[in-house]
Design goal:
Layout (H helix, E strand, L loop, with lengths): L16 E5 H14 L4 E4 L1 H6 L4 H6 L4 E4 L2 H10 L5 E3 L8 H6 L2 E5 L2 H14 L3 E6 L11 H16 L3 E7 L12 H18 L6 E3 L3 H6 L8 E3 L19 E6 L2 E5 L4 E2 L5 E2 L4 E6 L16 E4 L2 E6 L7 E6 L8 E5 L9 H7 L4 H5 L7 E5 L9
Parallel strand pairs: 1-19, 2-3, 2-9, 3-4, 4-5, 5-6, 6-7, 7-8
Antiparallel strand pairs: 1-10, 10-18, 11-14, 12-13, 14-17, 15-16, 16-17
The structure holds pyridoxal-5'-phosphate.
C-alpha cells in the first residue's frame, strides 16, 4: 500500500458503527429549555458525552449557554458558535488563558492560583476576563473550599477594581442530587445561598448564579437559579431515574465477521471461562473493550440479533466478542445491535451499565475511536404539547 492511501490514525475503523440520533438530542434540549424557562447551559464536555459536540443543534433548539471542562474543548465550540457564551471550569494553572480570554471564554475559578494565572493573561492582553467563582458545597472536588471562599471573593474583587476581570457568575455543584430525599441537598442549597450573599457583600455583582445539573433540575433539588448546567439529560440519561420525558440518542451496531456451528463442551475465549452445554452456533463481532464494551460485563451482556436477545459468551476481548446464537447460523455481514433506545427489544445503555456495575455516563463516553460515528437527522413530528 502506498503511504498516500494508508488510513489516518483517527480514521482506523473496525466495521462497528455508533449511530447518533440527533432528533432525540434536539427533543431533549427543547424539554430542558422549557423546564428551565430558557436558562439552559448545554454541557458538551467529553465530546458531548461521546455523541459529538452538536453545538449548533443545541443552540438552535434553545440552549443559551454552552459549558465544558477544558479551554481546548471551549475553543472548539467557539469556532462552531461565535455568538454564544461559553464556560470552561476545569483548567490547570498553565492552561492557555490567553486564548480563552481572547476568544471570550468564561472561566470557572476555584483558587487564588487559578485567579492569578487568569489575571496575568488578561493584563497581558489588556482585556477583562469573565469569571465564574466556583464554591465547593460538599464534594471536596473542583470548587474552592468554603473556608477559602471569602478570600477568593476579595481577591477577585481587587482584580475587578484593577480592570482585569469581571465576576459574571457564581457556581456550585451538588453531590447527591440524584437522591432528592437526601438531606445533604438542603445543606448544599443553603451553603450556596450563603456563598452568593457573601460574594455580594464583598462588592461582587454576579449576573448569573448556577447550581443544578441534570438530576437537580429534574427533581427540583437545586432550587431556583439563573442557569442550569445540563449534560447527561441532553443525551437521555436521568441520574435520578424519575423522568420519562427524555429520549436516548445512541445505538451501537456491529457486523458478523464469521459464524460457526459447534458441538457440546466447546470452550470460548480466554481462560475457557465458558463452555457450550449442547450443540449451538457462535458468531464473532468486531467490538471489544478497546471499543468501549466494559470487560466487567462479560458473562452477563447480551445483543439483539435477528430480533432476539442473544448472550455474549466467554470473556469480552480487546477487539471482539463471541455471541451464542442458538439455532441460528448467522451470515457474515449481517448486524447485531449492542445497545439502543430499547424500542426493538435491544439492550439499553442502562442494561450495559447494570451488567458492568457502573453508570450510563461511563458507557457512552468510552466508545472507542475505531467505531465509526454516523449522525442521523431524521425529521420527526414534534411532540404535541
Ligand atoms: C459534568 C458537569 C455538569 C453536567 O452534569 P450532568 O449531571 O451530566 O447534567 C454540570 N456541572 C459541572 C461542574 C460538571 O462537571
Amino acid at each position: 500500500m502506498s503511504s498516500a492511501s494508508r488510513p489516518r490514525a483517527d480514521a482506523v475503523r473496525s466495521g462497528a458503527e455508533l449511530r447518533v440520533h440527533e432528533d432525540a438530542i434536539r427533543a431533549n434540549v427543547r424539554y430542558f429549555a422549557r423546564c428551565t424557562r430558557d436558562r439552559l447551559m448545554a454541557v458538551l464536555k467529553a465530546d458531548g458525552f461521546g455523541h459529538g459536540s452538536l453545538a449548533s443543534a443545541v443552540v438552535d433548539e434553545g440552549a443559551t449557554w454552552l459549558g465544558v471542562a477544558s479551554i481546548d474543548e471551549a475553543l472548539v465550540l467557539r469556532r462552531a458558535r461565535p455568538d454564544v457564551p461559553i464556560l470552561s471550569w476545569l483548567n490547570p494553572v498553565d492552561a492557555d488563558f490567553d486564548a480563552a480570554v481572547s476568544e471570550r471564554i468564561d472561566l470557572g475559578v476555584s483558587s487564588a492560583d487559578g485567579l492569578h494565572a487568569i489575571v496575568q493573561a488578561a493584563r497581558h492582553l489588556g482585556r477583562r476576563a469573565r469569571l465564574h467563582l466556583h464554591v465547593d458545597l460538599g464534594m471536596s472536588r473542583d470548587g474552592t473550599p468554603a473556608s477559602d471562599w471569602r478570600s477568593l471573593c476579595e481577591l477577585a474583587r481587587m482584580a475587578e477594581r484593577e480592570g482585569h476581570v469581571r465576576v459574571v457568575g457564581v457556581m456550585g455543584h451538588m453531590s447527591c442530587a440524584d437522591r432528592p430525599e437526601n438531606p445533604q441537598n438542603l445543606r448544599e442549597r443553603l451553603l450556596f445561598g450563603a456563598a452568593i450573599r457573601s460574594a455580594r457583600h464583598r462588592g461582587l455583582a454576579p449576573a448569573v448564579t448556577h447550581l443544578a445539573a441534570t438530576a437537580a433540575t429534574i427533581t427540583g433539588a437545586g432550587g431556583d437559579h439563573d442557569l442550569h448546567r445540563i449534560g447527561a439529560g441532553l443525551y437521555g440519561i436521568d441520574p435520578s431515574r424519575t423522568s420519562s420525558a427524555l429520549r436516548f440518542a445512541l445505538s451501537l451496531h456491529a457486523p458478523v465477521i464469521s459464524a460457526r456451528r459447534v458441538g457440546s463442551g466447546v470452550s470460548v475465549g480466554y481462560g475457557g471461562c465458558f463452555t457450550t452445554d449442547g450443540p449451538t452456533h457462535l458468531a464473532l463481532f468486531p467490538l471489544g473493550y478497546a471499543d468501549g464494551l466494559p470487560r466487567a460485563a462479560s458473562h452477563r451482556a447480551e445483543v439483539l440479533v435477528r430480533g432476539r436477545r442473544r448472550p455474549i459468551v466467554g470473556l469480552i476481548s480487546m477487539d471482539m466478542v463471541v455471541v451464542d446464537t442458538g439455532d441460528d447460523l448467522l451470515t457474515p455481514g449481517e448486524t447485531a445491535t449492542f445497545f439502543g433506545p430499547g424500542e426493538q427489544g435491544e439492550p439499553t445503555v442502562a442494561d450495559w451499565a447494570t451488567w458492568a456495575q457502573t453508570i450510563e455516563h461511563e458507557i457512552v463516553t468510552r466508545i472507542g475511536a475505531r467505531v465509526a460515528r454516523v449522525h442521523r437527522r431524521t425529521h420527526i413530528e414534534r411532540n404535541p404539547e
